[in-house]
# Entry
Amino acid sequence: MQSRVRLLTQLPSNGLYEGFVALPNGALLVARADAPELYRIDVGADGADEVQLLSTFQEAPGINGIINICGIPGHDDEFIVLVGLIDLQAVRVSNYQIWRFSMSTTTGHDDGAKWKRVVALNGSGFYLSMVTISERVLLVTDSARYRVYSVDLVTGSTEVLVTHASFKAATPADFFGINRLSLGEGGLIWFTNSSQHLLGRFCVESPAAAAAAAADKEGAPSTATARLVGDVEIVAKGLPACDGFAVFPDGSAAFLVTMHEGKLVRLDLAGGRGESISDVGLALVNPSAVGLIPPGPGPGAEDGGGGLQLCVICNGEFEVTWKDHDPNAGWQDIADIVDRVTVTVMVTEE
# Structure
């Protein structure tokens, strides 16, 4: 396997970024956790990558950050966004809310608004990751109560899909238990537990399409929810503390990034098991998110390449009481990046 790396762009240098989503054309929408902002990165094959502040969330009081973002199947210009009131120093978040964001008023909501609230989540949880399994059903992790919830994006109805010991934090002193989800083929949902250092999976069956079509005679939509199929399965243990996570759709391999070690690692999943783990060999400054993006402009585009692409978000230098940073970790061997600069990097796998 050969990897090529290219520095894409620089985001505002004083930010913290925990999630992003790829558009069909390869552009990226990046969520900023320490401010209620969404950024768009248009990736150019010639290195002319453009960054713009796409939207600032001002729809509700008591919100100061966007925790994460994910796409909606069948809706290329609409996204699900998790927002909250975030205290980074205390590692405490409250006022969690899920909103729907539309980039286009012509194909957006009936009232033409860019933002529309789906539901306010229970304030005692610790929510971080989410994936849509259909255009109507969203899964959200709750690390505090070691649960995964199913959310109906039309009605806002929220139900516990599954709770499991592998979702718990390892000790009361650990911030996170289950912290990342990744959607695979055949209804497989992959997850990581940062403090238990494990990778697991479970399978869901979603009746969302049937439920959406079965509106009653008054036009009120019925509730759509996910259904667990089988048991939760532990796939690999002894992994680095995971801050970002992505699995190939076919489940053949996973990529993880870890802030504390500044690494991107690959885990081969032959036969659905963690067979081997390898360090990709990049020195990263506080990487927080990794995801697969569709082939498009970027590494390999100039010579007809179009293989699997990864994007990694790094947060540069920052000072908070809970984060011990290794001053020797850096990008100096790849690009001349100064302290307190957030960067993104794309890796093309062939």
Observations:
- Residues 215 and 221 are 4 Å apart (CA to CA).
